[in-house]
Amino acid sequence: MDGEPEPWPGRRVFWLAAAAAIVGALVLFAVDPSTSGIYPPCPFHLVTGLHCPGCGTTRGLHALLHGHLLAAADANVLMVLSIPVVGYAWLSHLWRVLGRKPWPALPATRWTLWGFLAVVTVYWVVRNLPCYPFTVLAP
Fold first, then answer.
1. Which of 46, 68, 102, 106 is 20 to 30 A off residue 91, Cα-Cα?
2. Calpha distance 49→29 (Å, rounded)
3. How far apart are CA 84 and CA 27, in angstroms?
4. From the first residue on, what is the mean pLDDT of each consecutive set of 10 residues in the chain (139 residues)?
5. Angle at which helices 57-65 and 77-97 cross, to 10°
């Protein structure tokens, strides 16, 4: 208000996103996606009948919010395995927003991106294979 620049221009956006995430988590905690029709279905699954890498994430997050790690992994194991990385990135940004010393950045090389895309692609393919043990990966 006094003409000084904002310490970090993305601060408002970050807090709005954090508030939206909290509201979303509260709704997801209260309303089970397995029994409610308020959540949108996966458009890829609707069109193709196949599971995308994100299929089962809503059910998995609901299970995690209730402390059921194995049920969450059963819904979408890739989502569960990605939580430490996503959590670190989010907490690192939170730390920065609070004006603290930044945490070490996660490695973001070209090979990291290609490796991530390879893991997601392989997961996408194998969770749609109609034979055991790959059927276990389907939500």
1. 68
2. 27
3. 23
4. 59 83 94 90 93 94 96 95 89 80 82 91 95 89
5. 70
**Cis peptide before 104, with omega less than 30 degrees from 0?**
no
Q: Which residue is listed with tokens 């749609």?
A: 128
What token pair was written down for 81? 């395995």
Exposure of 102 in the CB half-sphere (CA atoms within 13 A): 6
Q: How far is CA 80 from CA 2, 71, 73, in A?
A: 45, 10, 6
Mean pLDDT of the chain: 88
Residues 6+ away with beta carbon under 8 Å from 123:
53, 78, 137
Phi-psi region of 107 (alpha: psi -120 to 50; beta: other; left: phi over 0): beta
For the chain, domain boundaries: 11-137
